[in-house]
Amino acid sequence: MRKLATLAIAAAMCLPFTANAESWTGKLVDTRCMAMSTSNVGNDHKGGAMKGCGTACAKMGIPVALLVGNKMHVLAAPAPNFADHIGEEVTVTGQLVGGSWIMPEKAMTASGDEIAVGAMM
User: Which residue in 36, 84, 86, 110 has a CA-CA distance of 20 to 30 Å to 48?
Assistant: First the structure.
């Protein structure tokens, strides 16, 4: 799974992206559990039975996405950096790649705390 995510990020980085930074506000989600059920939007999944599931997946390196309305934008950045903020509303500034990936330059929580984005390479 991790190898597949790495390959997907590498492929997305080869696609053309916008010239200027843009900002999006949405909820951080764990892509693995969202793929299984769209009800897994917060950090606790399966109706709350799996406490901290989103954080655990992100800490294992499962890609994190920003859910903006009904659209998921996968963040091309180390997932563990976002793990403690799964389920929170954040604003991400960066480059849109291939229409659905974001190469984040900056991420801020709704309370104004900056998330250390890190770099993929």
Answer: 110
